[in-house]
Amino acid sequence: MYQRKTPEDLECGITIAMKVFGAKWKPCLLDAIQRGFRRPSEMHREIKGATPRVLDMQLRELETSGIVEKCQSAGFPLYTEYTLTDLGRTIMPIIDRINEWGLQYKELIAEGSPQSISL
Amino acid sequence: MYQRKTPEDLECGITIAMKVFGAKWKPCLLDAIQRGFRRPSEMHREIKGATPRVLDMQLRELETSGIVEKCQSAGFPLYTEYTLTDLGRTIMPIIDRINEWGLQYKELIAEGSPQSISL
DNA sequence: CTCAATACCGAATAATTTTTCGGTTACCGA
DNA sequence: TCGGTAACCGAAAAATTATTCGGTATTGAG
Question: Which residue in A12, A117, B10, B45 has its CB near the most CB atoms, within 10 A?
Fold first, then answer.
């Protein structure tokens, strides 16, 4: 298992929050769950650009952090559903605002942004 | 200059927002500016754990994105100040909530979080 | 002229995260 | 038994991001 080498400031709220839901696809996963895509296969289809593998991994981390909960029912075909926990629901207003901010200001940002070279 | 290789979904608000202020030290920098640490040397002292180099780089990116503004006055010693732009101020409520969330739930997260192995 | 302070930048390297690829298991239907 | 769907996992490789190290420039004091 991977061992982190650089220390982290776990007193810093930003650092903690970013660890929990700041990974590349975590906010998208949480948003997808909120919009009703609860099954892994649905999320795989919904979130273009992410490989199923990374979604599985980040979903598992969200579960381990107590943000989402897995409900699996035996049967065919396999049926697994992820839902937000109470803790997970406390994050959603933040994700929503991040999303709104991005949509609201995207034109303003696009020109001149150093990271937008790849457009 | 670095050329991105994996495509990005620039219609997704989350992706856009994360590009603008989601880098490792950007929220900390913005928070520091808000708390009154406006000079690079102050931020270097304030934000432990980050190297001056990365703070300089991320500050420059924030400037290029139009989130902060640089005011430099000739004189001795060199005096540079970064302040939030109007656009930058629209981000602060989000950063504040991220920070609050992290502080509020840190104990809840700590146990069992996959990323907290390095504690 | 040399030194210290402030604000930077470039390039190589290291650290971290994401992707790619190829599995596994369980089950049903033909 | 073979093929197909769903949900996963491990390991290596690639991509991305951050760090380290060693510079530059300006200015004023000694």
Answer: A12
